[in-house]
Amino acid sequence: MLNDLILKGPNFMRFFARLALAAGLMLTLGAVTGHAQSISDAQRGEIEKIIREYLVKHPEVLQDAMAELEKKQAADEAVKNQAAVKDNAETIFNSARQVVVGNPQGDVTFVEFFDYNCGYCKRAMDDMLALMKNDSNLKVVLKEFPVLGPGSVEAARVAVAVRMQDKSGKKYMDFHQKLLTGRGQADKARSLAVAKEIGLDMARLERDLASDEVRLTLEESLKLAEKLGLNGTPSYVIGTNVVVGAVGLEKLKESVNTARCGKATC
């Protein structure tokens, strides 16, 4: 149901906007033609004809109205998201149950929610690495958000156990990159193989997998994503803004700059 923004992405929003616009036009037309008792049938027919002819001759009116509707919906959603970020800021940015890489003291925090079986996350990882390489003042937080099936949950559980024996985040990043870019589905077997490959203590890893910390970490991420209204991966919180989807490096840079200096280019 949360498969890479299929149901809640831009196409869905445009479709919904069209439906809303059509419904609005129908309601308006009904108000004019169906509820005005003083208008005769002939007058009502003439009004309907005028409206239809105008819309046929000027279809751009529908496009303009739909564009305004989408703009308003986006603005309303941004306000809602910013309020959710403010209400959950401590858990988003400073939870003890998250991985911090980049500059821990950075002036902008870049939070990514990801799934190890998300194809878009594989490509988005390169964008994140490029941001870290070129921005020494960026704090990066990684949160497991396993929404693409049992294999994703298994991989996320192993990832949490990896984090538990690597406070620096260096081993975790090694694990993260190898698992996310590897072939085939990420699951427990593949995750353990990657953990062994990078030299982790496998006996401790198995013990940690059975701990409450793993369960509580994933519960925290899932509840936080729900509060933020996240519906797919990758999803980001950058400053006070929520960014959904693999939007590309340039859009992520703009979001970081907006958080840093209030505009797309600092």
Question: Can you tell me about this structure?
Answer:
The chain has 266 residues and is an alpha+beta fold. The protein has helices spanning 10-33, 41-57, 60-87, 89-94, 119-134, 150-164, 170-181, 188-197, 202-209, 212-228, 249-261, and strands at residues 99-102, 108-114, 138-144, 235-238, 241-244. Strands 1-3-2-4-5 form a 5-stranded mixed beta sheet, sandwiched between helices. The longest helix is centred in the first third of the chain and has 28 residues, at 60-87. It starts with 9 loop residues before the first helix and ends in a 5-residue tail after the last helix.
Which descriptors would you attach to this protein?
266 residues; alpha+beta; 5-stranded mixed beta sheet; 11 helices; 5 strands; 10% strand; elongated
Topology:
Blueprint: H1 10-33, H2 41-57, H3 60-87, H4 89-94, E1 99-102, E2 108-114, H5 119-134, E3 138-144, H6 150-164, H7 170-181, H8 188-197, H9 202-209, H10 212-228, E4 235-238, E5 241-244, H11 249-261
> Structural class, judged by helices and strands?
alpha+beta
Instruction: Bin the helical content.
Output: 55-70%
Percentage of residues in strands: 5-15%
Low-confidence stretches: 1-24, 32-36
Brief write-up:
The chain is α+β, with helices and mostly antiparallel strands and 266 residues long. Helices cover 62% and strands 10% of the residues.
